[in-house]
Backbone:
């Protein structure tokens, strides 16, 4: 079996070089070619001697997801359908702004968590991604925009899948993304979003290299949350918030709570007051995300009035609350919409 390189850390590539009887620094050169220069072909790795390039061509592979389709939104966001080596497809969303680009990555193909407002849940879990498949999403999509890249890149682990249910692989990918000697995306620009997997949050708290944490809360009582997110029966609100209170924030860091606003379901003034009570005292911000339409779902978007009142009540209670309108809604790229939908317009 050839060795898959795209997922190996610097140390592992140095070990591989040593196993091949080469100086360990050849591993550094390979690492640089892969993650800094984005080389795909061994013959392009001209920082390595010809003999090593030839050996790599025979004994190693670099497998990147392939772009199966691009759906371009009127607001500039692009939903990529990416095909993995086994034929499964996942989604990655590209969101350009004036001085940065944000990539929303998948950590699993499909998802087992079954949040009722989320289109991905309808797919079920197809499989976990590998670290190479997570990092590969960044490499492929950045390369697709190589001539127009903005100076900063943000990454959110918020696409298909629950990152904390593919914990080791996700953290390996984060270490690769954040390595200053490699892809060099600072940890403060990487956010992991969870549906509230409490053991995963507690484990993440102990990591030296860890992304920022966002928790998808979406309700203010257990009854309401369990109806929207069955995972709440396993990890109820009190347990989830206890893990958040114990979470060791770095000096520059805040927790993020995401709250998908569903008209008539979780957007009342009482909900706003309860939410303020629940997260009071935490160094946190709340992102209010008006629900994005998904075909065949029983929810509706909140009214502008409900949204404004909700935000005002939170702010009056001393909470940092923002309204975040998801991008790419017209191409089903927005939060909760990722379900491999192929649009009639087809790939561009
Ligand atoms: S919201 Fe996230 S965790 Fe919930 S079903 Fe969708 S992808 Fe899974």
Residues:
């Amino acid at each position: 079996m050839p060795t898959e390189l795209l997922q190996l850390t610097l140390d592992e590539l140095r070990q591989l070089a040593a196993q091949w009887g080469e100086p360990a620094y050849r591993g550094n050169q390979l690492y640089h070619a892969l993650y800094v220069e984005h080389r795909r072909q061994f013959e392009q790795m001209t920082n390595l001697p010809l003999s090593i390039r030839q050996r790599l061509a025979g004994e190693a592979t670099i497998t990147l997801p392939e772009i199966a389709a691009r759906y371009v939104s009127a607001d500039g966001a692009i939903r990529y359908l990416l095909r993995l080596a086994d034929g499964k497809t996942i989604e990655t969303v590209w969101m350009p702004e004036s001085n940065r680009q944000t990539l929303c990555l998948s950590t699993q193909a499909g998802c087992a968590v079954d949040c009722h407002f989320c289109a991905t849940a309808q797919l079920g879990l197809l499989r976990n991604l590998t670290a190479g498949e997570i990092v590969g999403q960044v490499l492929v999509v950045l390369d697709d925009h190589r001539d127009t890249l903005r100076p900063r890149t943000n990454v959110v682990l918020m696409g298909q899948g629950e990152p904390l249910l593919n914990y080791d692989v996700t953290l390996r990918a984060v270490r690769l993304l954040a390595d200053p000697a490699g892809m060099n995306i600072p940890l403060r620009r990487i956010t992991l979003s969870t549906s509230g997997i409490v053991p995963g949050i507690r484990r993440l708290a102990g990591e030296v290299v860890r992304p920022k944490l966002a928790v998808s809360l979406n309700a203010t009582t257990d009854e309401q949350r369990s109806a929207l997110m069955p995972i709440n029966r396993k990890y109820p609100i009190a347990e989830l918030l206890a893990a958040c209170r114990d979470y060791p924030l770095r000096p520059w860091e805040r927790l993020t709570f995401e709250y998908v606003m569903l008209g008539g379901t979780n957007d009342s003034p009482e909900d706003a007051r309860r939410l303020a009570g629940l997260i009071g005292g935490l160094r946190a911000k709340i992102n209010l995300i008006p629900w994005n339409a998904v075909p065949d779902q029983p929810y509706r978007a909140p009214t502008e009035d409900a949204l404004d009142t909700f935000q005002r009540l939170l702010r009056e209670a001393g909470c940092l609350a923002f309204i975040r309108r998801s991008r790419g809604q017209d191409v089903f790229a927005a939060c909760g919409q990722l379900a491999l939908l192929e649009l009639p317009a087809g790939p561009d």
About this structure: Residues 66-331 form a domain with the TIM Barrel fold (CATH 3.20.20.70). The chain is about 30% helix and 20% strand.
